[in-house]
Amino acid sequence: MTSACDFAPQPASADIGVYGLGVMGANLARNLARHGHSVAVFNRTPARTERLIDSHGAEGDFVPAADPASFVASLRRPRAVIIMVQAGAATEAVIDQLRQLLEPGDIIVDAGNTYYQDTERREASLREQGLHFVGMGVSGGEEGALLGPSIMPGGTDASYTRLGPLLESIAADVDGVPCCTHVGPGGAGHFVKMVHNGIEYADMQLIAEAYDLLRRVAGLSVPEIAEVFRTWKHSELDSYLIDITAEVLDRIDPATGAPFVDVIVDAAGQKGTGAWTTQTALELGVAVPAIAEATFARAASSATALRASVREAGFDAGANRPAFVTPAQRDAFIDSVRQALYGSKIAAYAQGFDEIATASAQNGWRVDLGAMARIWRGGCIIRARFLDDITRAYAEQPQLPSLLAAPTFAEALRSALPAWREVVATAARAGVATPAFAASLAYLDQLRAERLPAALIQGQRDFFGSHTYHRVDDPTGVYHVEWAEPGRAECKWS
Description:
Distance between the termini: 79 Å
Number of strands: 12
Number of helices: 20
Strand order of the largest sheet: 3-2-1-4-5-6-7
Strand content: 5-15%
């Protein structure tokens, strides 16, 4: 067993450093070493460094360090350090430690799930010291970190010149193209990763709703639903999440012999990125209802006492039957759910890309939306066949206002709409909640409507708060009705 005492100071030769050797950090370090890079490694708890060297030291050139100063001294200039520790106070503490040891031109990379505004703040502070700070999204979990993740680095052009070759070498590869690109300056990398996770929330909720419909409305058994998901792999729904859904549904609990999904408590956890995506969308004035409903659904699932109190109030009223559709209708309903799932998925991704585009324009990031779709095709949790179509859509129309307007997706949505509407209506009649399916459909219906009831809302706002309104025959003018005056005169405000 190696001990911390064996970690003698090394010359400044390591290509990059990894600070934090939990599972994600250790796997990222191993990935770098396996690709021929010399990797300095350090962990606050020496046992983790020792374990990495003892178990995987033969995989490549690791340079272990006993303390932060030796760790930094072992890096070639300009030094580059990837931090892989818990977001929040722990990340802040490591940054404060490293900034005392680094020199102008050196690079600190935060590879955790950090709120993008924290990244913006840190980047500005470190820039004053002459240091580059990179907020870098990494998707793919433990397996991706080791075998090839999707990587979304922000920061300066200069930092990517130094980091890019290393990161692209370890990223997932699709058709010879690495799933890594420079996203943009400042907090752009962490922002895109945040929205990626928001889309992931929506995608998972939509799949869960499809499962629920197949079980509670169509009356399929769990093994039958697993087989349906396996067949969907050969459709436009082909994705990592569809694959793992079939595997989860196939599993039998060894203790009870019941389907594994039936022994899991039905309360979904979350770590904050879905909420951040939703809150940020509200601040930007961007509609992301599928992502929001997916986030709220997790919150509702975890409100066990509230759910019990409402359930005890007795709202069944004939809903939640074992099978709402007849056996003769079953196959048609299954196909309708497939179409509704695809339509909802397109809408959810469109919402996420709209949020990225809006933030990019507001912050001057110049994020290439097509490149984001391209680097999500491999390595990440939301990797899916239809990301190829998204990549092509933005290549053909770089200024595409919405994925919903891309010819490929517009045609797919027109085709799916009848089945999608029927599925949402059937779910409502059966008493099965499909918040993300319904919100995605409503989003499409809102955007395609020639006129929305928002006109009435503006009238109400003008009545109780003198908030003014615009007229269709004078859209640039600002108007107000003197509601308390006899005759309720309308006046134009300058």
